[in-house]
Write a structure and sequence with these properties.
This protein is of the alpha+beta class. 31% of the residues lie in helices and 28% in strands.
Length: 465
């Protein structure tokens, strides 16, 4: 029988498939329980997640021996570990890493505060044995979306170091925030096969994320928001830790199906929200915090329809890239704030086409959100920016604006520092492209933009009910 090591069975230690632990009391009474995660610690140690195991814990206190069976969800190979209990950890890096993963799962499934980690139990691995096959894996799909990300790239272009060098060079060459976002997501898809990805940035409150760019989902999810601590993405932002999760597709598919059914029946009224993009058949999820001097400026997230798609080297590779990406994002925001003249440029008068139907914008003051032609468009800071621009256009015929004048307008509520204005304008442009293509915000160079109107517009204000 070939000798196996913990390093060689990383798929089985990813927490994708539950494991089984057997312990024994001093009187010989056995106890068998399921555990959600057996985590690799080092070449001779693993950690088990302790959540509800009162009997297992009692047995280990009396008899520190355990037998654990894990299996690889890709190859279906089984492994048996003979373990000796060493200690329980309730704080520190190991506990925090395992706790963050469980918190994300609990948030997804509505079990926050109930489904939580009590301790990380550390064991010495006395022996590791590969068990004879008891289940044959199914035939692997050959469609590109079912192949590992690196297998979708031609062999001669598959060097990870080459891909990293190429990506970092393009990050440095990006001229503005919009180009930077598209460059990173596009190159990760082309060079490494990460075909479904998101970038979320921290908003002015410092406690919410908003989706500013995506790849593989279309434009529908741009502007979607999530609070720190909610789900995988919110947990990554709150904990400042990268997380890779096992399939949550059953619960997510169920929730999405219920929502789609309710919307089709008309039982859900229009709401000022945008659903977060996601694959209906996601089997693997990976998210990394974007940090600058330990400050969370956003989250970079990936999904795949293939179980076990993200390997250990993917997380290491992407962590290096994410550090450079975060620095470039911060620099792009700083470049957005040049010295500009105090006075805005002279207004130009637009000549909208009378053949195009009017675009009707409605501002709901109390909710701080805008609907266009009866559909939700945007809220909060981007909504206030858009309403200011449209109001000036209607009253004065102005079409040229500067970032500086927006920053100097106290009614917009922009923070004094780190206002993320350019990212808000990118979000606003994309929402207009999706919901009202006749009204466009067009860059006029560094720190300037123009309003282009292809139809008449109507503005109405309402008090929210």
């Amino acid at each position: 029988m070939n000798r196996v090591t913990l390093e060689s069975i990383w798929h089985a230690l990813d927490g994708i498939a539950p494991a089984t632990i057997a312990t024994c009391a001093c009187d010989g009474t056995p106890n068998v329980s399921m555990i959600s995660h057996v985590k690799y610690v080092d070449a001779r140690h693993v950690a088990l997640s302790r959540q509800f195991f009162n009997k297992t814990t009692k047995n280990l206190d009396e008899n520190p021996q355990a037998l654990v069976v894990i299996w690889d969800p890709v190859s279906f190979e089984h492994y048996r570990l003979e373990l000796r209990f060493l200690r329980s950890e309730t704080n520190g890096p190991l506990f925090d890493s395992m706790s963050a993963r469980i918190q994300a799962i609990a948030s997804h499934t509505g079990m926050a505060g109930v489904f939580r980690l009590l301790a990380a139990d550390v064991f010495e691995v006395l022996s590791l044995q590969h068990l004879p096959e008891v289940i044959h894996p199914p035939e692997l799909e050959t469609a590109p979306e079912f192949l590992p990300p690196h297998a979708q790239v031609p062999t001669e272009q598959r060097s990870e170091l080459w891909a990293l060098q190429r990506l970092l060079a393009r990050i440095k060459a990006a001229q503005n925030l919009d180009e930077l976002l598209q460059t990173v997501l596009g190159n990760l898809a082309h060079d490494l096969g990460f075909n479904h990805s998101l970038v979320l940035l921290t908003d002015e409150t410092g406690r919410r994320l908003f989706t500013v760019a995506s790849h593989g989902y279309g434009p529908q999810g741009i502007g979607a928001e999530i609070a720190f601590g909610d789900g995988l993405l919110g947990t990554v932002a709150e904990r400042k830790q990268a997380l890779c999760l096992a399939p949550l597709d059953h619960a997510l598919r169920y929730g999405r199906a219920i929502r789609e059914s309710a919307e089709a029946e008309g039982s859900l009224s229009p709401a000022a929200e945008i659903p977060l993009p996601g694959l209906p058949n996601a089997k693997s999820q990976l998210a990394l915090p974007l940090l600058v001097c330990d400050r969370v400026i956003g989250v970079l997230a990936f999904e795949s329809p293939r179980a076990g798609a993200f390997q250990a080297w993917h997380e290491a590779f992407l962590s290096v890239m994410a550090d450079q990406f975060a620095s470039a994002l911060a620099q792009a925001v700083e470049r957005d704030n040049p010295e500009e003249p105090d006075e805005p440029p002279p207004p130009s008068i637009a000549s909208p086409s009378t053949a195009t139907p009017a675009s009707c914008f409605q501002l709901y003051k109390n909710d701080d959100c805008i609907f266009v032609d009866g559909e939700y468009l945007i809220r909060n800071v981007p909504a206030r920016i858009l309403w200011r621009v449209l109001t000036h256009f209607k009253k004065e015929g102005r079409t040229e604006f500067t970032n500086r004048e927006l920053r100097l307008d106290p009614s917009l509520g922009l923070p004094a520092v780190r206002d993320n204005l350019e990212s808000r304008l990118i979000l606003l442009r994309r929402r207009l492209e999706l919901k009202c293509p006749n009204v466009r915000l067009v860059s006029r160079g560094r720190g300037r933009f123009a309003l282009e109107v292809g139809s008449t517009i109507a503005l109405t204000e309402h008090e929210s009910t």
